[in-house]
Design a protein that fits this description.
Helix content is 49%, strand content 19%. The protein is an alpha/beta fold and 342 residues long. α10 runs antiparallel to α12. The relative contact order is 0.11.
Length: 342
């Protein structure tokens, strides 16, 4: 059995970290090492991790560098043939690793395996909504526009894809290997930037498993809810991508900006920020109006929801949102069942 290295960056997550670690230890695939990187966490997160006695757990400490810096540290120490990341507030289904390892071992051309994800709340309760990305024929353009991985907690990859994008730099007083770009202005878009370089440089494919194997937590403290920070980090990603993929960016930079702004607008709608959602939607259309032709349903629904939230009384909007949520959840469940039957 090949070894899988799982890397968990830890910073200020004492409320969730025990459940996250346990979801790794409960995996049906047992040949793993769990690398926990203390990113200068000020709370009791690491004390909680130290209470686990499983010999497969390794804890490394560093000053605060952010999630990219913690993941880089983890990859440097990883011994596995496969590498996976898990955010410290997310969870895995017990059979996640087993299914991804099988997928990678039986698919020589595939370097990155991922899955569907389900959203959960702060108390681990399912919200009834999912991320159901495209699972085949993934191109660099598709990664830029729609990022099928969706979350750093979702992928399991062959070690060689990280070797393909490795570079060296002296950011902290010594020459080190880097895999994720450790530019703080890139956060929280460092995931997609890394996946893009893998797609461009590794020569291996991205392919998904059409099953829900990752549980992605929505909580008020999550970086995904800092809308303008996300938008600004995306501009930083586009700026960097121009330096190593100029032809790709010439073809789709405006589209990549518009698709991302629309995605952030949807998050703003979900968090009740109507005015922000309207502003982001307008910026998306101003950047690339053809998104209306390429993705009409999602774009128009986002715009309509943004204006409805902004203009209507909250009680009426809440009723409409509840109805739309039930409809979307039912449609997603049908899609999951169809994927499983195939």
């Amino acid at each position: 059995m090949k070894l899988v290295s799982i890397i968990i960056p830890v910073y200020n997550v004492e409320k969730y970290i025990a459940a996250t670690v346990q979801s790794v230890l409960d995996q049906t695939y047992k040949n793993l090492e769990l690398i926990i990187v203390d990113d200068g966490s000020p709370d009791k997160s690491i004390e909680i991790c130290q209470q686990f006695t499983d010999p497969r757990i390794k804890i490394f400490r560093q000053g605060n560098r952010g999630v990219a810096g913690a993941r880089n540290n983890g990859v440097r120490h990883a011994q596995g043939d496969y590498i996976a990341f898990l955010d410290a507030d997310d969870l895995w289904s017990p059979d996640k690793l087993e299914k991804h390892v099988h997928h990678l071992e039986t698919s020589p051309a595939v370097g990155v395996s991922y899955s569907y994800s389900a959203f959960i709340d702060e108390a681990d309760n399912p919200l009834g909504i999912y991320q159901l990305p495209k699972t085949k024929d993934i191109t660099p353009r598709h990664i830029l526009l729609r990022d099928p991985i969706g979350s750093g907690s979702n992928l399991v990859a062959k070690r060689e894809v990280f070797e393909a994008i490795k570079f060296q730099d002296n950011l902290y007083g010594t020459l080190e290997d880097f895999y994720f770009d450790d530019d703080r202005q890139l956060h929280p878009s460092e995931d997609t930037e890394c996946w893009l370089r893998i797609a461009l440089k590794s020569g291996l494919q991205f392919e998904g498993i059409p099953e829900v194997l990752t549980l992605y937590r929505l909580n008020p403290g999550g970086h995904s809810h800092n809308f303008m920070k996300k938008a600004n980090s995306w501009e930083r990603l586009l700026e960097k991508a121009r330096t190593y993929a100029p032809e790709l960016m010439a073809q789709c930079e405006d589209a990549a900006r518009a698709y991302q702004l629309t995605a952030i607008a949807r998050r703003a709608v979900n968090q009740g920020a109507g005015a922000m959602a309207v502003e982001l939607s307008h910026r998306a259309l101003g950047s690339y109006w053809r998104i209306l032709l390429e993705e009409p349903r999602r774009t128009l629904l986002t715009l309509a929801a943004a204006y409805t939230l902004w203009l209507l009384p909250k009680p009426l909007y809440s009723q409409m949102k509840a109805l739309a949520f039930k409809t979307a959840a039912a449609s997603q469940k049908r899609q999951i069942l169809q994927g499983q039957s195939r």
